């Protein structure tokens, strides 16, 4: 005992042996810790309480949730955990919203990401008249004398940012090859100033009736 009090290496060795023994009996003999493990789930992120005339756009679609599960129980299913963004009362623009986990009787260890940066935009409506774009080559001197679209206008729906890109709605109509009146259903396409299709715009109706009346034009002068 006297040797132990005056020998520092022996005291350090005794301390390490004591700590190791405590840790061994603390964890290996603990049935609760031995029967549990960490389980990771990928859970869809859902936005709630958003007014019907608004839309929220965000890139993070899933959250990774780590939970403490029991080995003797069935694994937790992803549909038992919900990752929710509460958008009640938020104004339009860029917002950072914390994720709220709904996980009854589940021990959650961690959540990633903890919040989501999103943009809230209003959904707007706008009337537009079709812009006729003739396709093909006129032959046999046939020319269009009258064209009637039905309906004469369509309704565009989209976010304010997307509708700002729309310069008009285009309808492609083939040039008639002979005199007469023809009816055909043609698709209405929202386009930008360069004539490119603008995605994210809903057009109602997206098909319209086009009635084309063609007549024989004047032949070449002799």
Automatic annotation (TrEMBL):
InterPro entries in UniProt: c-di-AMP_regulator (IPR053154), YbbR (IPR012505)
The protein, known as: YbbR-like protein
Pfam family, one: YbbR
